Amino acid sequence: MSETNEQNTSNSDNADNIDYMTDSRPIAVGENTPGCKKRDPIVVAEDVTRSFGGINAVDVEYLEIPRHKITALIGPNGAGKTTLFNLLTGFDTPNTGKWQFEGSSLAGVSSYKVARMGMVRTFQLTKVMGKLTVMENMRLGAAEQPGERLSKALFKGLWGGREKEITAQANVLLEKFKLDAKKDDYAASLSGGQRKLLEMARSLMVKPKLVMLDEPMAGVNPALTQSLLDHIKNLKAEGMTVLFVEHDMNMVRHIADWVVVMAEGKVVAEGPPGEVMKNPAVIDAYLGAHHDVDLGDAEGIKVLEAELEADEESVVGTEDAGILSEIVETKKEDGQ
Amino acid sequence: MTVRTGCNGAAGTTPTVEVSILRSTLRDPSMRRSKGLQRVVGALFAALITALLIAAPSAQATTPSPSPSPTTFQNNISGFLRDDARAPIPGVKIKATGNGFEGEATSGANGAWSIGVPVQGTYTIELDTSTLPEGIKLADGQDNPRDVTFSQTSNLSVIFAFGKGIVVQQQDFGQNLLNRLVAGLSFGLLLALAAVGLSLIFGTTGLTNFAHGEMVTLGAVLVFMFNAFGLPFWLAILLALVGGGLFGYVQDAGLWRPLRKRGSGLVPMMIVSIGLALAIRYVIQFFFGGATQQLPGAQSSEIQIGPVSISPNNLWSLIISAVVIALIGIVLLKTRLGKATRAVADNPALAAASGIDVDSVIRIVWIVGGVLASLGGILWAYYRPGVTFDMGSQILLLIFAGVTLGGLGTVFGALIGSIVVGIFVELTTVFGLPADLKYVGALFIMIVVLLFRPQGILGRRERVG
Amino acid sequence: MDFGFIFSSALGELFSPTTAAYALAALGLAVHFGYSGLLNFGQAGFMAVGAYGFAISTLSFDAPFFLALIISVLCSVLFAFILGIPTLRLRADYLAIVTIAAAEIVRYVVTTNQLTSVTGSANGLAAFENTFYAMNPFPEGSYMGMNNRDFFIRVVAWGLVIVCCVLVWLLMRSPWGRVLKGIREDENAVRSLGKNVYAYKMQALIIGGVLGALAGMIFTLPRGAVQPSNYGTELTFFLWTCLLLGGMATVLGPVIGAMIFWVVLSLTQSLLYGLIESGVITWLTTVQAGQLRYILVGVALMLLMIFRPQGVFGNKKELAFA
Questions:
Q1: What is the pTM of this model?
Q2: Which of A190, B28, B176, B231 has its CA 20 to 30 A from that of B187?
Q3: In the predicted structure, residue B460 carries a pLDDT above the cut 70
Q4: ipTM, 2 dp
């Protein structure tokens, strides 16, 4: 523990000269076992359990999320990924356990305070305000708008200036997410993928330290997935930490620095993507007891394989391809 | 007499409503839904308006109005003399003296008395106890004569409380508690009849139905109407129950099902149910009038069973509702229909996917809900006693309180919640809460329970959003 | 039948103090439901709290007008707190049931004989309006066919409506209003953005409730009397009808809704009375004609909700639910 702290300090000392995109120092301290310590954790959870009617939806003994990294939380349906998200962000209360964000305990802290501390989440079922315009949605995300206090709301002089800053910030983000053309439309008129983008952009208005994305790729038009993945990678470049839930292992290995695998509420494996996907426990969790893993059909895999091979950052086609190539092989055989 | 003509109009139109609904449900299913809904709703309202037009009642609809002051003075001292069974006491002399004035009044047939006085101020009121009927005397602690003072208003109410002679007065606390407990159980069970229906409807459709009170009223009004037609009592009750079920069916088929098909949200449907409640309540008043009517055999004296004294009506009410609720429980737990109902309440989409005809389950729930509400209404008319156009809306909130206490959407929760509410309402008077505040206690306890256990007594925590 | 009289009296309703009171109370409901999604079915309770708060502090404590006004507003704030604390964390329908129950509790409490010396029981209170009319700046005379008292109360009532409308408009275009609208659609999303949803809902409940209390005072001042029977659940449902008529997520909607409501009621009422008295309609008594208005309101409420939930002038795109 003390070692971790030391590392922590040394890291923050020279934080300025580290490029988070190319930082290749080891993430974990020691072995990459489930519940291992990280060199620089941002979230630490201990003994967090939550049961629904006698079934343990979440039962996490120990988990650390590394700072300045993209961590993927994967696992089959019902593994407790979204419940863990809800627990960490204060949207649900665990039966037992303690967990902290940047050193301060979050037990009993309400969800809006968690968000204010810099831990912002999105939802599996996208939550955009359909009856507000895209721009209003963005402005809603902004922090420190004095006009959101009742005492100051009546006087535009007190909040008009900040509103201009917010609007400028929102314009930049909307442009980045290619939603600038839609900014005066009601959000209800957006497509599913655009809503995902809007929700992500809106969460960035809070200027979070940790962005938690619940299935950011679900239901998104394949044409948009690439840009979504780029956005997630850019978050890291800007110094944010990302934790995301994903079903699709191909997406995960494409962008994640670290993968946490959950099954039946427990963390069964963690480590860098290539390593984790060779882990027998993971293969069991995905392909053993549960066949509902969402890797699409053999046809879809082929297409994706081709796409990923063309992408220079992808590991597909290289020797690191790991479990993906195995899965593709099995699927192909099944298909024939 | 006048009411009868009014009811004729209503009876004449019921078939119209039915026919138009049958027609619209039999129509080609591919018809545009909103058109269909418009037609159904249109047909309902057309029927309603026809009902109002055909009716040719010269009904002396007596809206409750303050009793006229017999004097020319602006200020008056008044009150109602009622015994502890709420029956009026006529022919009692009351005298007021003070400010150099002396006035006297005798209570009328409805127990009302009023003495006009020239100026506001303090008066001494004396009730002439020698004019009281036999067996009735002033309750303990009732000062006579007593001094009363006007405060700000031109009317001053003086209340004399009566006990039924020595027997009642000597009734000890434990005895009273036991009696109220049994009465409360009886009241709670009749509330439960309505609450179980409301809860089933909420569970299967998600609708918080504010028109449920009117379904309660309808039961009692129908019995009164059929009885006024000269039908035998048992037939009147049977027809009223059938009428209640029919009303439930018509409501669902004519209004709620089309709205569900259209995908209306729960909040808009709740507001629609408020409009429906308002409309039905005053349609009933339109035909029935504003007066209180009595069902046959409404007045009965109490009988002694072991240590408990209870009126036979309350006893019957207790037995009937207990038996009916037990039947409902058995049906829900043991039969296919009951299981299907619970499945729909649990998860309509899943139930539909596993081959349950959700629509027909909901239809049956509405019919059963209507019958139960009618029965509850008839029993309520005996419990109060009396039939009025707004009797259902008077207990609607208590029904809600019962359902909320037990946990929204849980049938057995509604049963327990209603019994708690019924007993609580009756017991508050034993523990010193004035009788005109007894509903307040029940509503208050509902709010307090929501504070500490929002899911209700039997509700599942996860249900609360 | 004097059509001139019928129309002029209907037009008179357009700017009557009662219409102003309905407009204010419905504006409060717009803040609650239209902008924040709070299902308040107890607005009559807020009005009763306002009216009784004013009357009791004037009569029992001889409070001067403005003190009585402040006491009454504070009472409504307290009432909002009592309602909000148990329910604002729960699902919308719980708030609906609790507010309607609380409004009935208020009505039972002011009706009980135990408190006759304070509340006047079922007869209510009277003669508390003098502190208000003592401030009348208009000398006696005729103002547009009204005496100076009637004119004064209209000026004050509609002045208040205008001020409140402007305030609500300013609030709703501010970032504060934006958060409320966000909560109306999805409170969890707003929570995830770091806003204290509970506090916002409470503030909205209080603001709408204070508007209701002011409406209660405006409602009761020209009558010079306050009676519990006026504050039953029907009053709340009338207010909802006004709100739905005008459009719920607009500032002017409730005002226009209240005007339409009263003009239509007055027109149908006087036309029916006229027809009955002139012998054209023989199958209705005037009493029954009076009951018809309730039936009409109920039917109108249903039809509006089913076929035109955005109100007569509302914009369907801005509708909070569909």
A1: 0.78
A2: B231
A3: no
A4: 0.88
